[in-house]
Design brief:
Layout (H helix, E strand, L loop, with lengths): L1 E8 L5 E8 L2 H10 L3 E7 H6 L1 H10 L5 H16 L4 H8 L6 H14 L4 H6 L7 H13 L2 H56 L7 H35 L2 H12 L4 H22 L4 H7 L7 H15 L4 H6 L6 H13 L2 H57 L1
Antiparallel strand pairs: 1-2, 1-3
Length: 406
């Protein structure tokens, strides 16, 4: 007997998945049709057992929906859920029947939901499409019973994040092209031109300027130890990737990232925008504060802020107020602490948390514009500095040689 995995549809077009055991593929198809289903796909499970690596490669090579489609998914689902449609009915309504990666994703989500899984559990099966943050927010929305509000917040956040990243990429495109061209030219000059230039300069028996000596030293180092330098670079990258997977290292790096000028402030307020907004939604729907704080660490990808939230939950469980629990941690801005304190004193904590999230949104927008305005001139300045150093290293000895001849 051979096991087969199948996907099949009924007369209404609903998708079903499962496994059957049969002597042959034809017998497996007959068993599926006996259930009143039409076979959409039928795959022998033995291939997956004998060639697991091939199956993983096939899954990785499958086309994935773009980030814009994920934003569209959140926006459409928010509208349908706010109209009172159940999750499975909303997923059915989103399907158009066209054969695309997006439609395949919807079919698989619908099949998982029809099998009894919650929506966040179904989304967990697609980590390349839905990040851990998205899944955590959906889970929080399911717990609070406000899945439509959470999807609306997700759509707004993802849409603005995508627009900001696209704008930053377009701003940095010209400096990036200029920088790559400069580095390629620098490598070409270092390997092919500078050795001949070095022989000419040393034959003059004159003291070379400091920029020229530095450039010639770099050229000699690359020519003499090129393979070793390449291996060392690869080893450093591998060690950096390994260190990034360690919880302690990741926590220190995330904490340091929050302290960076400009970018750190942007990241800090962007994280608290999602955290405080999610906490406000949970409290508005009757979730007690300790239980709501227990859900928050999964919302952020910052390991340091996860620790901050865990310590805040423990402090709240010991009887401390929320603002004191959060303000005890350096990763929480003081202005937000004042707003949380005002909410606790007035008895409208969820309202002040929502206003604090809106304040974070304004700060993020302002810091994003400032960072984008500074990114292009800063990149051009760095590239221009490299070009100036290279030209100066070559021009200075020539000017000195001309002075000696005159």
């Amino acid at each position: 007997m051979t096991a087969y995995a199948y996907e099949a549809r009924n007369r209404k077009g609903e998708l079903f998945t499962g496994r059957v055991s049969a002597e042959s593929r034809r017998e497996a198809a007959r068993q599926i049709r006996a259930k009143g289903l039409w076979v959409a796909s039928l795959e022998e499970l033995g291939h997956g057992r004998h060639f697991p690596a091939l199956a993983r490669i096939k899954a990785m090579a499958a086309p994935q929906p773009s980030r814009l489609l994920v934003v569209l998914f959140c926006r459409q689902l928010a509208v349908m859920l706010s109209a009172g449609m159940p999750v499975h009915e909303a997923l059915k309504a989103l399907r158009t029947g066209k054969d695309s990666s997006y439609q395949q994703l919807l079919d698989k989500l619908l099949a998982a939901v029809m099998q009894g899984k919650s929506l966040h559990e179904a989304m967990q099966g697609f980590p390349k499409v839905f990040s851990a943050r998205i899944v955590s927010l959906v889970k929080a929305g399911e717990v609070a019973g406000t899945l439509d509000v959470m999807f609306l917040r997700l759509a707004d956040f993802l849409e603005k994040s995508y627009a900001a990243q696209a704008k930053l990429k377009s701003v940095l495109l010209y400096p990036l092209i200029l920088g790559v061209t400069t580095l390629v030219a620098f490598a070409f000059m270092t390997v092919f031109v500078l050795p001949t230039f070095s022989v000419m300069l040393t034959s003059l028996h004159t003291e070379l300027p400091l920029p020229t000596r530095l450039l010639l030293a770099v050229s000699a180092l690359v020519l003499a130890h090129g393979p070793e330098l390449f291996l060392v670079s690869v080893a450093v990258l591998v060690l950096a990737a390994y260190a990034w997977q360690q919880e302690g290292v990741r926590r220190r790096l995330d904490r340091w990232c929050l302290r960076l000028p400009l970018y750190g402030r942007l990241v800090c307020f962007a994280e608290w925008l999602m955290l405080l907004g999610t906490l406000a939604v949970l409290l508005e729907n009757g979730i007690r504060l300790p239980a709501a704080l227990a859900l928050l660490p999964e919302v952020t990808a910052n390991c340091y802020l996860r620790l901050v939230l865990q310590e805040a939950r423990q402090a709240v469980e010991r009887g401390l107020p929320l603002h004191a629990s959060l303000c005890a941690c350096p990763g929480f801005p003081a202005v937000l602490g004042e707003m949380v304190l005002a909410g606790e004193k007035s008895g409208e904590l969820e309202v002040m948390l929502a206003k604090a999230a809106e304040f974070c949104r304004v700060v993020v927008q302002n810091e994003s514009r400032r960072l984008q305005a500074l990114a292009e001139p800063a990149a051009i300045f760095l590239v221009g500095g490299l070009v100036f150093f290279f030209v100066l290293s070559i021009i200075l000895p020539l000017l000195g040689m001309m002075d000696a001849l005159t």
